[in-house]
Amino acid sequence: MFFVPGKHKDHGLPYNPFKACVLPRPIAWLSTQSISGVCNLAPFSFFNAFADEPPIIGVGIAPDSREEGIKDTLRNIVETKEFVFNLVSWEQRTAMNESSKPASADVDEFEEAGLEKLPSQIVKPPRVKGAPVHFECKLFKTVDLPKDESGKHYTLVLGEVVGMHIDEAYLTDGMVDATKMKPLARLGYQDYSVVNEVVQLVRPSA
User: Fold this and answer.
1) In whole angstroms, what is the distance from residue 163 CA to residue 156 CA?
2) Is the Cα dihedral 149, 103, 139, 94 positive or negative?
3) Which residues lie across from 127 on neighbouring strands?
4) What is the pLDDT of residue 187?
5) Residue 12 domain-assigned?
């Protein structure tokens, strides 16, 4: 089957399969803080790492459906230049999903999702207690991605990781153990996956 993006319904597909074909995707559970001090927490599924020296992560943030057209997370990052990535584990899947609920800028999603805050070491936004990994990040740059037919666009946020927290309970012989963490991953539609098994492939030499 071949089709041009956006023309999936012409081929009998009820939903756009793009995200269902780019899988699994890690979830960027981002905590930010407004310039007035209100904490925000929200998950984003267009996320990955792009470099490790220095470590750079990137998050694609969709335009908001409200009139101002910008999500609280993006506004906070642009205004404060800081954010925290919290890794979503299987145990916190329900809280993560709860924090995706649309809310006004004056709502603290930590409180709405029943989550406790942990202080960060370098940046102001707090961390999610119980998350096995946290990256404290400083904004590197934002990139406006192409506009859609309505004139709206995603924004790519690139952040430099300036501090890392790893719960030592998830280390085995000094290495991160994914089977202990059980990180949650995004699939397509309303579907998720969890890492329960790891297969090692040794890269061949030249």
Assistant:
1) 21
2) negative
3) 118
4) 96
5) no
Containing 84, the helix (H) or strand (E) segment is strand 82-86
Report pLDDT digits (tens) over 9-28: 989 999 999 999 999 999 99
Written as one letter, the residue type at 43 is: P
Paired sense of beta strands 133-147 and 82-86, if any:
antiparallel
Give domain status of residue 82, yes or no.
yes
pLDDT at 103: 87
DSSP string, 133-189: EEEEEEEEEEEEEEE-TTS-EEEEEEEEEEEEEE-GGGEETTEE-HHHH-BEEE-ST
Residue 165 to residue 185: CA distance in whole angstroms: 20
In a domain, 61, yes or no: yes
Task: Please write the tens of the pLDDT for every residue from 63-85.
Answer: 876 656 789 999 999 999 999 99
